[in-house]
């Protein structure tokens, strides 16, 4: 008896949750579906949902006309470069804060967090000017550096919260057993730190990939990543729904997949360890 | 415990991160502060000398200042209310036993990973377009005249787009908090005959208070500086010019750097007020 009630309730929960989930997901689903339609079907009245002539034409057109691959490469370079660079700088910092904390560690961490709160628009012109003076405007290197800097506080914070969970006793035990510092880092610490570093890498790659203030304002034709590429479709002559959808699908697909793997890290990373 | 040697090694390991962030903070900030006191028009003569507090008073005195403050508050407030309320409901729902929970979670979280320019363009063209948009079709289907969303209901439209992007974030964090709720306590309350509303009010909501505060603070910081969504949809027209968009226009579009920088200083102060509260909470968590 009781079981039947639970199953009924479970069925109701399932129905409601799935409906809401599909409504929230619908814009993405619709974009993906539209990307396989012809332009005429994309704006047909009434709208066609599944029963249309599926075509891959839009994808090849987008690639040919606007050289999608170049923007993709820019995105990969900028997001990947800024994440790796950030990790190289942040790992030692987070490491020392987690394992050799001093009285000022907490203040330094909070101060790093505060730099993240600086509204980008407040320093837009100085950065723009410096970029012109240093010849960095519309270069991948310039954007990589800026994105590394804006995400550095998050990287340090995430790593710090992961490193702090590594028990210090293990290190002492290794030392007692006569492990050298090199062996200690190589065989004891690194294996325990890898999952945290991997999560940090994933989340920051996503954040850098989707960043849309500096990428729009500091690039033109050469170094523009996918965010800027998509924004260029907002001009009237680019208004072809099926092609817009194909371009959008290509821009979000890699991150959507990565994002699903990093749900848990998202919470920790974006709340600076305040919620785990 | 830590030796002198390991302390200096630790300092050395921290140095690159600290120095870089210090430079990233101080250099542009000093420049913005400096420009804000200058009459600086790069396209019309460059730096034309000292301006005192002129830029500050002119920025506040301009006819677009107060509307922009209002637009900012309406967008931030609207998105916060929608995402927190729906986020709580969704979190409670997703915590219930059901089939395919993992898949539903993925569906709900997905919008967060869509880049802002894509979500703005997709909403603008494929849903809100008055001729070919899906909404226009639905409106016509029910015999109503299609709405020109981004001009006639511009604020509501932008709030909707941004809420769609941030609802996953609120849901995910609130879900994490809901899952840490003591289920025995809830069951005990249920046995004692407490209604759902009283359980929600006296047990669940107090438990979620901290998570809600964090959602509100973090979202506020990000929402104060939303840019791409407005850039792509309305370009600041139809009353959607937020404070940060106004500053962007002053600085890059009309190239009045002095005036824009004064606005930037206001924006920085505003963001810092929010940041102080957030840092308190995060700081407390560090001690625990």
Q: What's the topology here?
A:
The complex is a heterodimer of chains A (276) and B (288).
Chain A: H1 2-34, H2 39-42, H3 57-66, H4 68-99, H5 105-116, H6 124-133, H7 140-163, H8 168-176, H9 181-210, H10 214-217, H11 226-231, H12 241-261, H13 263-270
Helix pairs in contact in A: 1-12, 3-12, 4-7, 4-9, 5-7, 7-9, 8-9
Chain B: H1 4-36, E1 38-41, E2 46-50, H2 54-61, H3 65-94, H4 101-109, H5 116-127, H6 134-141, H7 149-152, H8 154-179, H9 183-191, H10 196-224, H11 228-233, H12 243-253, H13 257-287
Antiparallel strand pairs in B: 1-2
Summarize the structure.
The complex is a heterodimer of chains A (276) and B (288). Chain A is mainly α and 276 residues long. Chain A has 13 helices and no strands.
Task: Describe it.
- The complex is a heterodimer of chains A (276) and B (288).
- Chain A has 276 residues and is mostly helical.
- Chain A has 2 domains: 2-57, no CATH class; 67-270, MetI-like (MetI-like fold, Orthogonal Bundle), CATH 1.10.3720.
- Helices cover 74% and strands 0% of the residues of chain A.
- Chain A is built from 13 helices and no strands.
- In chain A, helix 3 crosses helix 12 and helix 5 (105-116) packs antiparallel against helix 7 (140-163).
- By secondary structure, chain B is mainly alpha-helical.
- Chain B has one domain: MetI-like (MetI-like fold).
- Helices cover 75% and strands 3% of the residues of chain B.
- Chain B has 13 helices and 2 strands, in the order H-E-E-H-H-H-H-H-H-H-H-H-H-H-H.
- Chain B has helices spanning 4-36, 54-61, 65-94, 101-109, 116-127, 134-141, 149-152, 154-179, 183-191, 196-224, 228-233, 243-253, 257-287; strands at residues 38-41, 46-50.
- A two-stranded antiparallel sheet of chain B has the order 1-2.
- In chain B, strand 1 (38-41) and strand 2 form a beta hairpin.
- Chains A and B meet through helix 1, helix 4, helix 5, helix 6 and helix 7 of A and helix 1, helix 3, helix 4, helix 5 and helix 6 of B.
- Chain A: InterPro entries: BP-dep_ABC_trans_perm (IPR050901), MetI-like (IPR000515).
- Chain A: One of its GO terms (cellular component) is plasma membrane.
- Chain A: It is a multi-pass membrane protein.
- Chain A: Residues 72-262 form the ABC transmembrane type-1 domain.
- Chain A: Pfam families: BPD_transp_1.
- Chain B: It is found in: Cell membrane.
């Amino acid at each position: 008896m009781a079981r039947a009630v639970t199953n009924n309730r479970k069925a109701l929960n399932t129905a409601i949750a799935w409906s809401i989930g599909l409504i929230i997901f619908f814009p993405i689903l619709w974009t993906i579906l539209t990307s396989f339609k012809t332009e005429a079907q994309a704006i047909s009245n009434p709208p066609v949902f599944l029963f249309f002539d599926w075509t891959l034409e839009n994808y090849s057109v987008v690639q040919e006309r606007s050289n999608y691959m170049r923007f993709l490469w820019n995105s990969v370079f900028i997001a990947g470069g800024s994440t790796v660079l950030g990790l190289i700088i942040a790992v030692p910092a987070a490491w020392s804060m987690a394992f050799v904390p001093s009285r000022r560690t907490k203040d330094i961490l909070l101060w790093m967090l505060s730099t993240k709160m600086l509204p980008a628009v407040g320093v837009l012109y100085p950065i723009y000017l410096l970029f012109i003076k240093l010849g960095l405007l519309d270069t991948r290197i310039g954007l990589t550096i800026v994105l590394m800097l804006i995400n550095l506080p998050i990287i340090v914070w995430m790593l710090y919260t992961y490193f702090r969970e590594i028990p210090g006793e293990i290190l002492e035990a290794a030392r007692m057993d006569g492990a050298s510092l090199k062996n200690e880092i190589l065989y004891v610490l690194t294996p325990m730190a890898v999952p945290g570093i991997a999560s940090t890498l994933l989340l920051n790659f996503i954040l850098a990939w989707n960043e849309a203030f500096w990428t729009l304002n500091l690039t033109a034709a050469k170094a523009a990543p996918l965010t800027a590429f998509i924004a260029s479709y907002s001009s009237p002559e680019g208004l072809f729904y099926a092609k817009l959808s194909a371009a959008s699908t290509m821009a979000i697909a890699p991150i959507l997949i990565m994002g699903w793997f990093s749900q848990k890290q998202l919470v920790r990373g974006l709340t600076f360890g305040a919620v785990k | 415990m830590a030796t002198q040697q390991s302390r200096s090694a630790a300092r050395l390991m921290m140095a690159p991160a600290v120095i870089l962030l210090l430079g990233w903070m101080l250099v542009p900030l000093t420049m913005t502060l400096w420009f804000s006191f200058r009459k600086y028009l790069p396209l019309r003569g460059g730096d034309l000398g000292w301006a005192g507090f002129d830029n500050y008073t002119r920025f506040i005195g301009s006819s677009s200042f107060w509307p922009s403050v209002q637009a900012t508050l309406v967008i931030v407030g609207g998105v916060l209310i929608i995402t927190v309320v729906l986020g709580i409901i969704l979190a409670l729902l997703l915590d219930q036993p059901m089939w395919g929970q993992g898949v539903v979670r993925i569906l709900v979280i997905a919008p967060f990973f869509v880049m802002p320019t894509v979500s703005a363009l997709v909403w603008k063209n494929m849903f809100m377009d008055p001729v070919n948009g899906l909404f226009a079709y639905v409106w016509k289907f029910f015999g109503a005249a299609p709405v020109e969303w981004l001009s006639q209901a511009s604020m509501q439209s932008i709030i909707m787009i941004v809420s769609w992007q941030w609802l996953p974030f609120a849901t995910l964090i609130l879900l994490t908090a809901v899952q840490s709720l003591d289920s025995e306590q809830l069951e005990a309350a249920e046995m004692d005959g407490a209604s759902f509303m009283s359980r929600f009010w006296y047990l669940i909501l107090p438990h979620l208070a901290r998570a809600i505060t964090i959602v509100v603070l973090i979202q506020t910081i990000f929402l104060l500086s939303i840019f791409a969504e407005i850039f792509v949809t309305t370009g600041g027209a139809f009353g959607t010019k937020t404070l940060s968009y106004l500053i962007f226009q002053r600085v890059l579009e009309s190239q009045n750097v002095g005036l824009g920088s004064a606005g930037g200083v206001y924006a920085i102060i505003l963001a810092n007020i929010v940041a102080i509260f957030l840092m308190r909470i995060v700081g407390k968590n560090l001690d625990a």
